[in-house]
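OP here, attaching both records as promised.
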Amino acid sequence: MKFVSTRNHEVSVGFTEAMFNGLAPDGGLYRPEHTPNLSQFFTGLSADVPFNELAADFTTALLGPEISPDIAGNIINDAFTFGPKLREVRDGITVLELFHGPSCAFKDFGASFLASAMNHLLARKSDNNSRAIIVTATSGDTGSAVAQAFHDKDRIDVIILYPSGRVSPLQEKQLTTLGGNVTALEVGGSFDDCQRMAKAAFTDPKLSHLPLSSANSINLGRLIPQSFYYVWAWTRLRSRGDFAFIVPSGNFGNITAGLYAAAWGLPVNRYVAATNANDVVPQYLKTGRYEPRPSLATFSNAMDVGAPSNYERLDDLFSRSVDAFRSHVEAWSVDDETTLETIARVEKENGYLCCPHTAVGWRVAELYREKNPEVPVVVLSTAHPGKFIETVKQATGRTPELPEALFRLMDRKKEAFSVGNGDADLRDWLLGRFG
């Protein structure tokens, strides 16, 4: 398997180089050079295959021989001490819970794989001083997952940019209280500013001497492992026939991973993007015009993205054709009032408590089922409701119970550096820290 830039298909690199580069030299995103056919691999999986076994074999099937079975097994077993869970909440609506990892969010899957893969592959280099500097932007859950996954990795420094005042208090605690090799930069701006600053750093000639890489979903090492749980869910549900994945979407990495799995032969053809008021992609599918804009702050803050990075991968996947895009993806948006109402209603009617992002997905699942009543749906639940105490309490009138991983953070002290929202602000900080 080789990978090329979405902007230039002429130069191909291996997975290791693509992972450590993060962004292609021309500013594009890496994507597979060719579309592998893994249909036989998928259909050969048993209905009870353990998640780690599936993930290791999938890694080898996709990335071998560069990543051998032994290396794949080591990466997977170091990365995943947790896994996905399926819960049928009501007839026709099953929830794929992806929040049982260390930061209680779905991004633990991609971040843990990336951290483990980088650490293993750095250790195999002949230069014992090989290091990586991770620079990543977050609208909430990415940063906390990356911080947890990379903490205490001795060959890696982690710099996390987050928008001041636009992440939940618990998300901020997860970003700013670990210390060690993890440093948080509190940016005076939006997530879109953070994302732009991080991207600019990778192509800045003044920073070319630094071993920079990314842990956002622009990095293939974050994106590819997110396809694992789509395949795992299908192994458990395939005997029921056709179904649709409903995916809460902000930067569109999560649904891109599912659509890649489908392109590689996973026999699920229905993918639905659920967004909040930041509905750039739903509008694109309606009008045929892609018009990114400044992000809006909502209760589902991890999806507050006005210029989704992975749109570029999807546009490339569908040959820059809106009609091809529409044939593979449907999309709806949900406003804040409906998000709160859905959290309250789902708990009252089903005894199931959703985070605001999952509530957006749930409401879109209902809209999809109104249009396709015969098609069951799987809603990807992206975070534990305890990460959003204030919003869940506003919706339901009660404080959600915190898992132990979140409860431990309550009394920890925040440590973050304040920076401006210009590209030069990040460049100057990096040069001041790393020279």
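Record two, same layout:
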Amino acid sequence: MDIVGSTGNRDGHTRPPRLRLAVLDMVGTTITDDGRTEQAMARALLEHGVEPGSARFESMLGYARDTMGYSKATVFTHLFDDPRTAESANKVFELAYDELIADGGVRAIQGAAETIAWLRDAGMKVCLATGFGRHTQNMVLESLGWMGEADLSLCPDDAGRGRPYPDMILTAVLALDVDDVREVVVVGDASSDMLSGVRAGASAVVGVLSGSHSEATLRAAGATDVVPSIRNLPALLEPRAARL
């Protein structure tokens, strides 16, 4: 396992620091919504005068795909010059997403719940982080029955800025009394997850291939490891967990 930020021991050798906190992305990493995020984004664009199939529509939707994991409010401020239009589009997105998941369209990725339980049994705190607003995040957690499954859930409004900034990770470190950012593992499916982990100083930044971006994209953004799915995380972290 390629880990940065190793510390010394009595024998003079280096070893990775203990992991005390796992910051896990939601859509694409621990849960799947079968494309409902993009459907809600498309509806927001349509209702704000962007013609489906037009070059502008495809370009804007492409930007939304490239910035998966970012605060959705921030994405809309990039897509629309007028702040009021951006705010309105974000509200349409949230309402559309609520409608789209009301039928149970969000579900846990196979092995996600078991991995969260494994992390907590290993003595680690768990934070679920998202680019959604607080209301939408709560809707997702409630629909899964995951309220209380993690030690903390965070959205960009809780931290000041969303990904790719490190704010949510650092907020989790403070809120959960973690002593050292090198004791953090960040897990996500998008380049923004990797960038936020690197910028926060996490020693393990793990990409998963169950969501938005390819292994090459994740590694280019700073992933220390890439695994097929969240369910592969325990095997990856097992040597560290044995020392917790």
